[in-house]
């Protein structure tokens, strides 16, 4: 039985910052952002968007009534959770109107959470072939204003329906994974901003990729020539390229050219959204599928997932017949076409605007947010969500 990605969608907030202007405001050479790390724009989350609403908006465009009846497991991968107890999946389940006989959980391991969710989903489908699983990767990357990590912030979510007989991608079973207790990136419970040892994290990302790649070749018997493309978790778009370059010489010249060309295509969305943590790898996959029009069915795509702290995994998927018919290319293009650029001053004000830390009630102006699902405020320490379509 084939199991894999039946549908995939994403959502990013309606406002963004131009990275050249951010660099100039920080007295940094713009090329360090646009070329050095490979970022052009950075999505900014208004106070009316959090990890729950981003995930729900990403899922809203891809689910239909049949999905609402068949989804019996919602897995919410995030490191931007809004509650230490209640999962974001429960909120999303209600906001989407899914049938009640379902499991709903939140999974956390830095940027690896959505990948863990996919593997859990595969096991569930293997036991329950008629079921569907909604896997969400939703995050808001925050390092703080005027910090070394500011240029690798972002906000957004990817939603995937995992099922038997998938229409987009069959996920193969040659997975190789690795865990090591390291402190390259972390966010203590008391902090709303992450801490990162940037140089160490980059080194560990590449080390993890090299280790799982070598193990994958041994386990699967496959090599670079068997890959049409490799998609990476992208905290910034140059990161995956650094990893790819460490193994690219293993391949013949025509394969090297193909992998490098497809890598660049896979980074187009990430370059203009920024880092979305758990969703970054799958935004890279989506960018490749939607922007490379001649990507043929039946080809194999490699995927490297990395979550600091750290867990890494390499796995592969095979594109299914007529997969492009099941993509939402036009609606995703609308997300980019209708976004509004904000000034650096506006961005800084939005960044500093937070919900009351003492639990006080607040009512937010949701009219300025065009999203279908928004956070409207807090009452009695409870976040209030609104689906404008309901």
Estimated radius of gyration: 20 Å
Alpha plus pi helix count: 13
CATH-defined architecture of the largest domain: 3-Layer(aba) Sandwich
Could you tell me the CATH topology label of the largest domain. Answer: Peroxisomal Thiolase, Chain A, domain 1
Question: Low-confidence stretches at least 5 residues in length (pLDDT < 50)?
Answer: none
CATH superfamily of the largest domain, by name, is Thiolase/Chalcone synthase
Protein name: Hydroxymethylglutaryl-CoA synthase
GO biological process, one term: acetyl-CoA metabolic process
EC number: 2.3.3.10
Organism: Ornithinibacillus hominis
Describe this structure in words.
By secondary structure, the protein is an alpha+beta fold. The chain has two domains: 3-167 and 327-387, 3-Layer(aba) Sandwich (Peroxisomal Thiolase, Chain A, domain 1); 170-322, Peroxisomal Thiolase, Chain A, domain 1. The chain has 13 helices and 18 strands. The strands form four sheets. Strands 1, 4, 5, 6, 7, 8, 9, 12, 13 and 14 form a ten-stranded mixed sheet that branches. A three-stranded mixed sheet has the order 3-2-15. Helix 3 (51-60) crosses helix 5 (88-95) and helix 7 (198-220) crosses helix 8. The longest helix is centred in the middle third of the chain and has 23 residues, at 198-220. 47% of the residues are buried. The model has no long low-confidence stretch (mean pLDDT 97). The active site is at residues 79, 111, 233.
Keywords:
390 residues, alpha+beta, Peroxisomal Thiolase, Chain A, domain 1, 2 domains, ten-stranded mixed β-sheet, three-stranded mixed β-sheet, 34% helix, 25% strand
């Amino acid at each position: 039985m084939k199991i894999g990605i039946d549908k995939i969608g994403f959502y990013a907030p309606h406002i963004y910052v131009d990275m050249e202007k951010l660099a100039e405001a920080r007295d940094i050479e713009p090329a360090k952002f646009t070329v050095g790390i490979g970022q052009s724009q950075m999505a900014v989350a208004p106070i009316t968007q959090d990890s729950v609403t981003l995930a729900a908006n990403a899922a809203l465009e891809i689910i239909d009534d049949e999905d609402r009846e068949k989804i019996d497991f919602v897995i919410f991968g995030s490191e931007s959770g809004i509650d230490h107890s209640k999962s974001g999946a429960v909120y999303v389940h209600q906001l989407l109107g899914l049938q009640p006989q379902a499991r709903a959980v939140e999974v956390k391991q830095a940027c690896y959470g959505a990948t863990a969710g996919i593997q859990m989903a595969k096991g569930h489908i293997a036991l329950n072939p008629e079921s569907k699983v909604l896997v969400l990767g939703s995050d808001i990357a925050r390092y703080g204003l005027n910090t070394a990590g500011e240029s690798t912030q972002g906000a957004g979510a990817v939603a995937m329906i995992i099922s038997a007989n998938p229409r987009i991608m069959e996920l193969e079973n040659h997975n190789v994974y690795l865990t090591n207790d390291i402190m390259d990136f972390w966010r203590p419970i008391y902090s709303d901003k992450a801490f990162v040892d940037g140089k160490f994290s980059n080194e560990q990302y590449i080390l993890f990729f090299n280790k799982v790649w070598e193990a994958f070749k041994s386990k699967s018997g496959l090599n670079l020539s068997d890959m049409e493309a490799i998609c990476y978790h992208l905290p910034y778009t140059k990161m995956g390229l650094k990893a790819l370059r460490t193994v690219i010489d293993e391949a013949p010249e025509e394969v090297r050219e193909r992998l490098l060309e497809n890598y660049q295509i896979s980074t187009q969305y990430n370059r203009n959204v920024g880092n979305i943590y758990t969703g970054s790898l799958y935004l890279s996959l989506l960018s490749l599928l939607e922007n490379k029009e001649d990507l043929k069915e039946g080809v194999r795509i490699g995927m490297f997932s990395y979550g600091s702290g750290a867990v890494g995994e390499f796995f592969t998927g095979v594109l299914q017949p007529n997969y492009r018919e099941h993509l939402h290319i036009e609606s995703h293009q609308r997300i980019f076409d209708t976004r509004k650029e904000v000034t650096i001053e506006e961005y800084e004000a939005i960044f500093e605007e937070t919900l009351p830390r003492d639990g006080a009630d607040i009512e937010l102006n949701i009219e300025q947010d065009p999203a279908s699902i928004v956070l409207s405020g807090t009452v009695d320490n409870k976040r209030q969500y609104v689906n404008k379509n309901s």
